Amino acid sequence: MRKEEWILPYMKQNARLFVLVIFLGAVTIFSAAFLMFTSGFLISKSATRPENILLVYVPIVAVRTFGIARSVSRYAERLTGHHIILKIVSDMRVRLYNMLEPASLMLSSRFRTGDMLGILAEDIEHLQDAFLKTIFPGVSALLLYAASVIGLGFFSWPFAALAAIYLFVLVVLFPVVSLLVTRAKNMRLKSGRNTLYSRLTDAVLGVSDWMFSGRQAAFISSYEEKEKAWFDLESKRQRFTRLRDLAAQCFVGGFILIMLFWTAGQYADGSMANTMIAAFVLVVFPLTEAFLPLSDALTEVPSYQDSIRRMSKAAPELRGREVKQSDEKLDVTDVTLTFDNVTFSYDQHSHVLDRFSFTLRQGEKMALLGRSGSGKSTSLALIEGALVPDSGKVTLNGLETAAVQDQISSAVAVLNQKPHLFNTSIMNNIRLGNGKASDEDVKRAARQVKLHDYIESLPDGYETSVQETGIRFSGGERQRIALARILLQDTPVIILDEPTVGLDAVTERELLDTIFDVFKEKTILWITHHLAGVETADKIVFLENGKAEMEGTHQELLAENERYRKLYRLDVPIRT
User: Fold this and answer.
1) Co-location of 135 and 242 in the same domain
2) Range of 112's domain?
3) What is the pLDDT of residues 480-496, one digit of tens each?
4) What span, in angstroms and rounded, lies between the C-alpha atoms of 407 and 136?
5) Which residues contact 23 (CB under 8 A, 6 or more apart)?
6) Which residues make Cβ contacts (< 8 Å) with residue 283, sequence separation at least 6?
7) pLDDT digits over 128-145, tens only?
8) What is the dihedral of CA 155, 156, 160, 163, to 10 degrees?
9) Pairing between strand 337-344 and 353-360?
């Protein structure tokens, strides 16, 4: 993705509001400038002790007018600007989610949790500053620079040219030099902040392991050391920033002196009234105040670019051939899942799946076995439409899954190794499968997975909080809650992605019995790496080197395949 894909589209969508914000910003600055100008003139004119108050009545009204205009326009600018930015940030979050959601099955292999947290929190929030602290004030300052030079030209073109050159240093050279000096530091600070995000998140998720190993002090020491290095680098950058701001203020002071000498010369030549000297000198303050933030605005550009790069990197990596999205509605009443000579590879050197085929009709149960890395999880990603085959097709009722990815959830539900439970009530976690389900529907699903009596025995019943990631429940209980959720989803196809990993043998058997009992009318694709319970499947496929090495029913394979018999005898006595 290019930079403009995260910046320009939103500017084009909100072009009128952007122009309004810049206009209000310019009005604010010009009101502040004319407020100081008329105030200087009023003070000087009043010092001459005019004979009648009417002689200073106009500047008095002008001071009030510009004072009110400055406050009102500043408020309107901030209100409009933040309204736009909050809307843009919201749209960015939705867009980022829509990028991540189709490839959710592959996220853990592409990102660490801390990296993803940094993208969702730090990077998107940081981009709002690109508008508020760089684009809006930058454009307003450039307009003000041009208007100031043109305005001085009405009095003296030679002095206007001198002012243009002098202010050019403040408007352009100071920000550019500041960018060149701080660019490397800013990138290191951004990278260091991302690393701290990742390390802290990783440590929080593994805090029990740190405690049990007795290494928590070592982690804290290591983290604080890296944090101190980050703060030291930040201090160096702040030191340069303070020196730069001091130099800029001195530079502004020089321009005030130049303005003072020029107005004094104009007065001496009779080209300007003495009451205008203070007016011209005072107007410098609000004008230069608009130029000073430009240095900070430009130095943040590299960090904006890094945020855009990280957000663009979150886009799913498209592999395989391109599949056009289909407008045809997926029929979910009688679903047939088909792998037709599917070949897929993550690189050009080896195939994860090599001309792999099977057909799973409505109501059939199939066990897909294989060692880790044999292509089982890749098959799941292909069914979900997160990946596209290099050749061949993965279809649901004849429609390629990648072409109807937005409809997959209506046809396929997945129970994986670690289903996520949200930090809310049991009722809400189960209802996630169907937002329209009533309380009675939720309880009926819980009864079917044999969890209702246990839930009712809890002090708060179905309103009991499962706590973060469902930590208050055992592994088997978490799987049953997820199972009830899938029951409410009521899809014709159920995919079991090694749901019994980490469970003891008794709990594993009870969970499998429950699964095959409540889903006896459903199509089941059971992805597993061991053979406990496979006799309940109508069909067994053993995946190896991307191909179906063994295929048939449990009884057929026991009778005809010596390797299967050995694997079954080794595996089943231990796990049943």
Assistant:
1) yes
2) 3-313
3) 888 899 988 888 999 98
4) 41
5) none
6) 33, 34, 36, 37, 40
7) 888 888 888 888 888 889
8) -90
9) antiparallel
